[in-house]
Amino acid sequence: MIETSGGTKQRLVAVVGPTAVGKTDLVLRIAGELHAEIVNVDSMQVYRWMDIGTAKPSLRERQAIRHHLLDIADPDEEYNVCRYLDDAERACAEIYSRNKLPLLTGGTGLYLKGFQEGVFSLSEDQAAARNMEETRLREKLENELAEKGRAHLFAKLEKCDSATAARVHPNDTYRLLRALLIFEQTGVPWSVHLDRQKRATVAAGNFVPRREILKIGLVLDRDQLYERINRRTAKMFDAGLLEEVQSLLDRGYGADLKPMQSIGYRHAVKLLSGEWGREEAIRMMARDTRRYAKRQFTWFKKDREIKWFDPGRSDGVMDLVKEYLQG
Fold it and tell me: Do 268 and 245 touch, CB atoms closer than 8 A?
């Protein structure tokens, strides 16, 4: 847990859950009543000029409550969990300096887990395999494998993680893909993860200690959530998603960039290119968003510390948060 110089506990509250479940309304209420400032835990909302497709808080909401870690990277910048941890540390320190509560919210489970435990305290299996970007990155690497072969991927591994390449056989496809996946997700070589995990057992002082965080999870009946996703997807197109994506392309941000391959943006690109019609783009975006929400919930439900609530039970959430802060 975080402590002040005087040893007093400094509290942290997080509101998590799948996309479109209703986190925004709840965090605005908590922040308004408890003088909190909101810290983004969404890996896409960090990017500038990507507002509609990421469901970024509105200008009005951001004027009412101070938000952190929004619009801090250009779409062609490398942004990963390690950079996020540094940014979140600074944001929380600033919030504490004003005697306010950091209220973390978003759907990127790896970012929250890393902030609570330290990125190098994640187990080998947890370090990258459950990140919400895993499916896209794994497909990309598997396509490279199919098109260019194992030798090509092994050469990539030698460049980014020579220590792992020295212990992995060039024909060991599983470990080859795993090592590259971890590096692309976290920006840190697999060998570094393993080395620091081993040293952590001997010198725990070298690592960020596990923090105490009250974690609130929001959950809805699946049909309700999916209906929300379907409606929100259509509204994004009505609100100007196509124009937003065209503006990004006009700025020189190519469709092959990692953020431009995310949900909403890749669908809009296909519509703009003429590959899909509007109805097809909306249908596919809604389908992929529903699948993403399912993966998010699968991640979060494995965290036994999360207290689950229906979005309509905000009074119960407020009671729990106030009890935690007074403890």
Answer: yes
Q: Which helix (H) or strand (E) holds 238?
A: helix 222-238
| Average pLDDT, 10 consecutive residues per value, the chain (327 residues) | 47 97 96 96 97 97 97 93 90 95 96 82 45 70 89 92 86 83 83 65 49 96 97 98 98 95 97 98 97 94 95 94 92
pLDDT for 92 equals 95
Question: For the chain, what are the domain ranges?
Answer: 2-122+209-221+297-326, 134-200, 222-295
For residue 119, the model assigns a pLDDT of: 60
Cα 263–Cα 59–Cα 271 angle in degrees, nearest 5 = 30
Q: If you classify domain 134-200 with CATH, what class do you get?
A: mainly alpha
For 48, 196, 268, 300, the CA distances from 273, given in Å and listed in that order, are 23, 46, 9, 36
Q: Does pTM surpass 0.70?
A: yes
Query: What pLDDT sits at residue 199?
Result: 56
Q: Which residue, 11, 9, 55, 16, is CA-closest to 37?
A: 11
Amino acid at 149: G
Alpha-carbon span 253 to 76, nearest angstrom: 7
- Contact between residue 45 and residue 70 where contact means Cβ atoms under 8 Å apart: yes
Axis crossing angle, helix 23-34 with helix 314-326, rounded to the nearest 10? 40
CATH class, range 2-122+209-221+297-326: alpha beta
What distance in Å separates the CA atoms of residue 324 and residue 214, rounded to the nearest whole number?
7
* CATH of region 222-295, choose from 1.10.150.170, 1.10.287.890, 3.30.565.10, 3.40.190.10: 1.10.287.890
DSSP for residue 259: G
Residues 6 or more apart from 219 whose CB is under 8 A from it?
A: 17, 18, 21, 297, 308, 309, 310
Please report which residue ranges of 65-133 form alpha helices under DSSP H: 81-97, 109-117
CA 166 – CA 241 distance, rounded (Å) = 46
